[in-house]
Design a protein that fits this description.
296 residues
Length: 296
């Protein structure tokens, strides 16, 4: 046992992790399974197995570098390309193509592709925020004529974190609408102006605080006073922007004043986020009637 331990430590000091792993595994077989030292050795062998794999991968990369010289970075990229392709799930690609094709057939290719791309931007807002929090999520799935969704796991998240994930979609959508407004400024094309307005309107509808929409999850993080603040903001936006759709947000927030899902603590950051989105989307909507997206 002492000889194996000494040999294993010597191999570790020289970073010969595979040989050290063999020694510790041999030593482990000499100990009773329930011994405290055996538990330590099992943990150590698991660590060494990981280190040995990493060392083997590094050696393989080094071999490629020697073999291919200046082309080694290209070879490494191609080796990882399979992983990149795996991100483009077939379900994501086919559903996006079907979604775009429907609007292409109804309103022309320019609107079909542009509208589908902006819906994708909204969904990737959710996806990126979920991934940023280290949670598992699938690529968006598109339902032609209905919308799109991201399947994800929210286990362990509090109401405030869920609200941030929900609002990330409308935020990305607002940025997409802003990009279209920028293209309108540079091109003077009413198409981009109408697409900006339409995209902002759809993202505003998503902020109505009912269960199936993004606003429903966001509202769950707000206390009664904050829900009143959303009501007041939506009413002011309806007046300033002459947009009655804001009254749907008001109605939903007013209803949520009487539900039993009030959080234990206020969510001031979520409230500010929600209000900024309402004001920004209102501004983008009133730039032009959404029908302008059919223009040139």
């Amino acid at each position: 046992m002492e000889a194996l331990s000494a040999s294993a430590r010597a191999h570790e000091s020289r970073r010969e992790y595979a040989l050290a792993l063999e020694d510790w595994q041999k030593a482990l077989k000499l100990l009773p399974p329930d011994a405290s030292q055996a538990e330590w050795m099992r943990t150590r062998t698991a660590q060494l197995a990981l280190l040995a794999r990493q060392a083997a991968q590094a050696a393989a990369r080094g071999g490629w570098a020697k073999r291919f010289g200046p082309l080694a970075p290209v070879v490494l990229f191609l080796a990882k390309f399979k992983f990149l392709l795996s991100l483009l799930k077939l379900k994501f690609l086919l559903s996006f193509a079907a979604f775009a094709s429907l609007y292409w057939a109804l309103y022309g290719w320019k609107f079909g592709v542009g509208f589908a791309a902006l819906i994708m931007v909204h969904e990737f807002g959710h996806f990126i925020e979920i991934k940023r929090r280290g949670l598992p999520a699938e690529l968006p799935v598109f339902l032609p004529g209905v919308g799109a969704y991201v399947r994800w796991t929210a286990t362990g998240l509090d109401a405030r974190a869920r609200a941030m994930v929900s609002l990330a979609g409308p935020l990305a959508g607002a940025l997409g609408a802003l990009a279209c407004a920028g293209l309108w400024i540079f091109t003077a094309s009413k198409f981009w102006l109408g697409l900006a307005s339409l995209t902002a309107l759809i993202n505003l509808l998503n902020l109505i605080p009912i269960a199936i929409l993004d606003g429903g999850q966001a509202m769950a993080a707000l206390d009664k006073g904050e829900r009143i603040a959303i009501c007041v903001t939506a009413i002011l936006c309806a007046i300033v922007y002459s947009q009655p759709l804001f009254l749907l947000v008001t109605a939903g927030a007013a209803y949520r004043l009487f539900t039993r899902d009030l959080p234990d603590s206020p969510g001031h950051g979520v409230t500010a986020y929600y209000i900024v989105l309402l004001v920004s989307l209102g501004f983008l909507i009133q730039l032009a009637p959404p029908m302008a997206a059919g223009g040139s």
